[in-house]
Amino acid sequence: xxxxxxxxxxxxxxxxxxxxxxxxxxxxxxxxxxxxxxxxxxxxxxxxxxxxxxxxxxxxxxxxxxxxxxxxxxxxxxxxxxxxxxxxxxxxxxxxxxxxxxxxxxxxxxxxxxxxxxxxxxxxxxxxxxxxxxxxxxxxxxxxxxxxxxxxxxxxxxxxxxxxxxxxxxxxxxxxxxxxxxxxxxxxxxxxxxxxxxxxxxxxxxxxxxxxxxxxxxxxxxxxxxxxxxxxxxxxxxxxxxxxxxxxxxxxxxxxxxxxxxxxxxxxxxxxxxxxxxxxxxxxxxxxxxxxxxxxxxxxxxxxxxxxxxxxxxxxxxxxxxxxxxxxxxxxxxxxxxxxxxxxxxxxxxxxxxxxxxxxxxxxxxxxxxxxxxxxxxxxxxxxxxxxxxxxxxxxxxxxxxxxxxxxxxxxxxxxxxxxxxxxxxxxxxxxxxxxxxxxxxxxxxxxxxxxxxxxxxxxxxxxxxxxxxxxxxxxxxxxxxxxxxxxxxxxxxxxxxxxxxxxxxxxxxxxxxxxxxxxxxxxxxxxxxxxxxxxxxxxxxxxxxxxxxxxxxxxxxxxxxxx
Length: 564
Description:
The protein has helices at residues 6-27, 33-41, 65-78, 101-109, 143-153, 226-240, 251-258, 260-274, 283-290, 306-314, 316-325, 353-366, 389-398, 429-438, 442-448, 510-524, 531-538, 541-548; strands spanning 45-47, 52-56, 62-64, 82-85, 91-93, 127-128, 168-171, 185-191, 197-203, 215-222, 326-327, 334-339, 350-352, 370-373, 379-385, 413-414, 453-456, 470-477, 480-487, 499-500, 505-506. It is an alpha+beta fold. The strands form four sheets. Strands 16, 17, 18, 19, 20 and 21 form a six-stranded mixed sheet that branches. A five-stranded antiparallel sheet has the order 1-2-5-4-13. It has a five-stranded antiparallel sheet with strand order 3-14-15-12-11. Strand 4 (82-85) and strand 5 (91-93) form a beta hairpin. Helix 3 runs antiparallel to helix 4 (101-109) and helix 3 (65-78) runs antiparallel to helix 12. The longest helix has 22 residues, at 6-27. The radius of gyration is 23 Å and the shape is globular. It starts with 5 loop residues before the first helix and ends in a 16-residue tail after the last helix. The relative contact order is 0.09.
């Protein structure tokens, strides 16, 4: 992973010292709230419903065991013993005391971490594929380009006060696991006719109150021009993006207003002015950064023994976990292992300090001291020998990290909602518990198959509800919590915004309504169709008819297999 040089470390250390003095002056009454607000936002500090919230950057979701132990230390010393992993591959601490935040930032700096640009109208954390560097379907490891973009964008003087926050994602694989199409700028690594790797550039994606999927403005860009092309996009946005209305300030609004062709023309014109400037990315610099992302020393004899195959046959629970939580790895004899942060009864994405310390120990023992944070609020040990899967599974079970539900209905994306957020209209965590309680039967979940529920407590869409197979949006109706459902959304290669089901559902009826939707799916599916395939084939009407039909009977008992 990337290691700070003396300049990186100096910059982060100086920022800690600056913010320590700024916080001291604020607490002493020397800075007003209005003066302090932009300073704290530059350092990832929000004031939430009950306490400050600090968002810590995890560039492209990559953590060392040392860094995860530091996050555990912060959770234990400065918070309430846990942290919340977000859809930007970051971690949030919901309960720090304001006066302790400079100390937290100093602790982070000691392990090459920070909270810079995790909030405010700037370029946020660069996200990527959580299987980067190990995926079998990968054209090229995207992490070096993420790091190059991170270094270019951090403290960029021209883009430190954009019209609105700005998010970039990069994917280098055939299958998009980074939700590239819902970012302000999305970058796919692609090959041209000569077999050379370059970039396909998308612009104008984003969710929130006006959701859009990104549009392609350049099919192929040479890698040496990556930074100058990004600079051109940001310059056009910075000049023309609206500043009079924060709800219409994102680049997606600008692209939609002027049209993709006109926006492309403006970007290309600006790019011609700067393409051969100091922003030109030479191969030596690309190779230098690539040098930080070398593969670990894999055991060439890491093959599975007969014991592993026998255990798959004899132990159903181990088999289910391998099916769902263990994924392919490009190195023979190795696997990537999901650690589910969606154990029933736990808020999705939360991990305790004890669990973080435990995961760090497992990473040291089984995964070359490396951990990944996923876009869907789970963690991954990326380099596990297949022969070590069984002892790892036994250890993970004791730490409540082996729930075999990756990609299933209970593997929900969920924002903190009304429990913490000032902006939320309704709770999310309690709805997640309601869904978990109702759909606890693993055989039933496996029969349904891959299924994405994504939930947000307000229209800002931190839970990405627009692109869930079922999206759940919390709304307020005269002081009561209701939930608007959408169907047919998806991220990934075939990204799609969900369709509104109908009138909002009362809080107590959310899980029961999902049950009705699943009944329609199971009745209508053909062969091995997934929910999304069935929905796109039959449309909304069968689901709407079932959900809003007069329901005078108690819902039927859910069985362990398909059908009722």
